[in-house]
Design goal:
6 strands; 4-stranded antiparallel sheet; two-stranded antiparallel sheet
């Protein structure tokens, strides 16, 4: 997934306010989780990132490959096929190495990313 929306650019920032969760109840179970706790956030889902219950702010994530997650993230949209093509290109670029971690498995994308437009569809 690609996480965005931190106004500070550090990965820890937010807008200065929080709002309540509206958690999904109809996600399919993740086939890789025998406990049934994790659910599938499908490719194309747009959901709120958070730091725990009812801590939604400005950070969100775009899912470019089905992901097994706890159902703790409010889904509020989906990415269309053109957007998924863009996400695929970003993901294919890899993760930017840092001085502390020259081969990271999580972190900022190696390719620069800037969201310049989002369309609302009904």
């Amino acid at each position: 997934m690609l996480q965005c929306g931190d106004p500070s650019g550090t990965g820890a920032g937010g807008p200065g306010y929080r709002y309540r969760d509206e958690l999904p109840t109809d996600l399919p179970p993740a086939p890789t989780d025998p406990t049934g706790v994790r659910k599938v956030y499908a490719r194309g889902v747009l959901a709120m990132a958070n730091a725990g219950p009812d801590t939604n702010g400005s950070q969100f994530f775009l899912v470019y490959a089905n992901s097994a997650l706890r159902p703790n993230y409010t889904i509020f949209g989906e990415v269309d096929s053109a957007g998924l093509d863009t996400l695929d290109r970003i993901a294919a670029g890899g993760i930017a190495p840092t001085a502390e971690d020259p081969a990271p498995v999580d972190g900022a994308p190696a390719l620069p990313v800037e969201i310049v437009k989002a369309d609302r569809r009904h």
